[in-house]
Design a protein that fits this description.
- The protein has 710 residues and is α+β, with helices and mostly antiparallel strands.
- Helix content is 36%, strand content 14%.
């Protein structure tokens, strides 16, 4: 591992070629995975805005001030990014401070009149912000004693969920994305003719469990939808009807609905969704697992939801009593299951910790194919902000970066870091672990004050020698915990990887930073907790058997070490070399036939003909399989269905290529026995190795696994 000396994160053009390629692939996969899962915006974070050099005086948080700020920010941002429309709401001290609409709910590109966004009239799809409603429903039934957070969910279900580990899977695990399920993509978002059957979506061919419950944050739409189905089972009421009566109506959200398609009285109020300005309006999206992302709501209704979550009087009745609301909003897992990952950002029972400038912030983002939203609460400040966009924008990250500009700008303007707060961290850093272990222990508080971008460490940080030792343990290549391990989509792990290397002796350089296209430098501020130099992000590490076993970089996401046999350099070298050899072999067939005919050479004798023919079939099969997997994975990541029959055909081609190793070996032996000449023998060796290379790739990445569910 190389060592570099840098004092600040490098811009993309200063990254190595390999890092730039990895960053680009990471961005593409991050966007696809986020859309596929209606995931939180935390799944594709842009580089953080630099922390202010010194605390600023907060602006007056009034409706007029917020309106002026938003009016100066959003119209220009929409025009720059190609986003058609935005809807924003801010609440403060029990009141809706402002609700604003920008751009258009209907751009009028189909010949009709353009319709400006009305934050009270127009419904936007909120994506995974819906999960907060689902979590609230679960907590209501916990509050009534109908459900228990720590009971095995098998007690509540009428079907079996796959289990690899003996530990119980609980509602606490489902709401914190630690049940251990692998990613599931198929059926998440469809169009108007899609039938929605929540039980079938969950019970038919569920995802495998790949992590021990409670130990690895791995964002899961399936897990949250499972919690919603348990609400349906426990209440005896269809999920959509339960939340309509017990949450939406009680909070005064009379213009919101989980129904798909929308009821007639709401359907004409739905904003169009767009890829970007100038693109045609998209059809209404059908979320296959409604609890995870089906809510449609105007900004004013989301403001009422924020008020209810803050414990303010709104609507018919409180959604939760104070004790249950506090339970929902505090970290739900500790070091007993997470180990030292508990010192980083954690999930509450539904919310992400998104603290900034020393202020406690709870949030959740959400994305469908066309709508992109985020909600943040400041529980200690009786404040909340909600933003939703009805377009992705000109580039894949435009909608995310625009949301971050609004959310971070709001925090920095109205809730800047206080002089006594650790303003450089996304949360106050408190260690619950000893410096060299992974077991829970008495923690120490960091010294107060912001962490400068230089070499000064917090008083309660880690000495340079210990940090250098920890940095060496952390160096390596990592991939996201939100992944697939049981079938061909294991291929997704090849992109979006992060390389961690040591710089300045005791700092860490992340290339690229988790799900970003730029690098970032981190330094250790308490045992196994690292803070971005000059930024506001933290990561926490868990060590097992003398090696870093996981790095949590967000409440429901972690980086896991890539096994040596799946190292990118090894895999890509084997795959690229094998593919080139096989392509050259195929291209040589007609060339050799023409040369033989032109020169009048006699055809090869029939000895060994069967092995030669079977080898050719294997070469063609291997190449067709590689092309088939490429097309299939690209289609799936674009949320396009790939028929099972097509995947089975690709698997058959792959199997033919793998079995072709046998006739290729026979052919090589025959050439050696007959002393066919070094050129022919070298060609036979190359073909054998190329088929073996593609075969190894197929086995290592589960391309021949019986399950092709995705």
């Amino acid at each position: 591992m190389t060592h570099e000396t840098v004092t600040r994160p490098r811009s993309p053009r200063h990254l190595s070629r390999r890092a730039r390629i990895g960053a680009a692939l990471a961005t593409a996969v991050a966007v696809a995975a986020t859309v596929a899962g209606c995931g939180t915006s935390q799944t594709d974070p842009a580089p953080p805005a630099p922390a202010p050099a010194a605390p600023a005086d907060p602006a007056a948080l009034t409706g007029a001030n917020v309106d002026t700020w938003l009016d100066g920010l959003l119209p220009a941002a929409l025009a720059r990014t190609g986003v058609a429309g935005a809807s924003v709401a801010v609440v403060r001290d029990g009141e809706i401070l402002t609700a604003r609409g920008y751009g258009h709910a209907d751009t009028g590109d189909d010949g009709t009149d353009a319709v400006p966004v009305d934050p009270d009239r127009h419904l936007f799809r909120v994506g995974s912000v819906s999960k907060l409603v689902t979590a609230t429903a679960v907590l209501q039934l916990v509050q009534s004693g109908t459900l228990d957070l720590d009971t095995d969910i098998a007690e509540y279900l009428d079907f079996t969920v796959p289990r690899r580990y003996p530990q119980a899977v609980t509602l606490r695990h489902l709401l914190t994305h630690t049940a251990g399920f692998e990613e599931r993509i198929a059926g998440l978002i469809g169009t108007a003719d899609t039938d929605v059957d929540l039980r079938a979506a969950l019970a038919d061919d569920p995802p495998e469990q790949i992590y021990e419950p409670g130990t690895v944050p791995a964002y899961s739409n399936y897990g949250n939808a499972l919690a919603g189905y348990i609400v349906q089972r426990a209440s005896g009421t269809r999920f959509e009807e339960y939340v309509s009566g017990n949450i939406l109506a009680r909070a005064g959200m009379i213009s919101s609905s989980f129904e798909q398609p929308l009821p007639a009285h709401l359907s004409d109020r739905m904003s169009n969704g767009y890829e970007r300005v100038g693109a045609p309006a998209a059809p209404f999206e059908i979320v296959g697992t409604p609890p995870a992302g089906a809510l449609s709501a105007p900004a004013t209704d989301m403001a009422r939801f924020m008020l209810a979550q803050l414990g303010e009087q709104v609507g018919e009745a409180p959604l939760l009593d104070p004790a249950t609301r506090e339970l929902m909003q505090r970290p739900a897992l500790d070091a007993s299951s997470l180990g030292t990952l508990a010192d980083g950002p954690r999930m509450t029972l539904g919310y992400f910790e998104e603290n900034r400038n020393g202020h406690r912030i709870l949030g959740h983002g959400g994305d469908t194919l066309y709508f992109h939203s985020h909600l943040q609460l400041y529980p200690d400040d009786r404040t909340g902000i909600y933003l939703s966009l009805n377009s992705t924008g000109e580039s894949a990250l435009d909608s995310h970066e625009l949301r971050q500009a609004v959310l971070n700008g709001f925090a920095d303007r109205y809730f800047p870091a206080e002089p006594t707060q650790p303003g450089e961290g996304t949360q106050p850093v408190e260690s619950t672990q000893p410096a060299e272990g992974t077991q829970a222990a008495e923690g120490t508080q960091p010294a107060e004050g912001t962490q400068p971008a230089g070499r000064t460490r917090p008083a309660a940080g880690v000495d340079a020698a210990t940090s250098a030792e920890h940095a060496q343990l952390a160096a390596g290549t990592y991939e996201s915990s939100r992944t697939v391990q049981s079938n061909f989509l294991t291929l997704m792990g090849l992109v979006g990887r992060t390389t961690v290397s040591v710089t300045d002796g005791d700092r860490l350089l992340f290339e690229p930073a988790p799900l970003s296209d730029t690098a970032a430098v981190y330094e250790e501020v308490s045992p196994w907790v690292w803070r971005e130099v000059g930024g506001q992000r933290t990561v926490a590490m868990r060590v097992a058997d003398g090696q870093v076993a996981a790095i949590s970089f967000d409440s429901a996401f972690a980086l896991l070490p890539v096994p040596a046999e799946r190292d990118s350099a090894l895999v890509l070298t084997v795959l690229a070399t094998s593919t080139v050899v096989l392509l050259l072999v195929v291209l040589s067939w007609p060339v050799r036939a023409v040369v033989r005919r032109r020169l009048g050479r006699a055809p090869r004798d029939r000895a060994g003909r069967t092995a030669r023919v079977l080898t050719r079939v294997a070469v063609a099969g291997a190449l067709l399989a590689l092309a088939g997997w490429t097309v299939s994975v690209v289609s799936i990541m674009g949320l396009r269905e790939v028929p099972e029959a097509s995947l089975r055909v690709v698997q058959l081609m792959q199997l033919i290529g793998l079995l072709g190793v046998l006739p290729a070996a026979v052919r090589l032996v025959d050439d050696l026995r007959r002393r066919a000449g070094w050129q022919r023998i070298a060609g036979s060796v190359a073909v054998l190795l190329a088929l073996a290379g593609t075969g190894w790739f197929a086995v290592e990445f589960m391309l021949l696994a019986p399950s092709i569910s995705y």
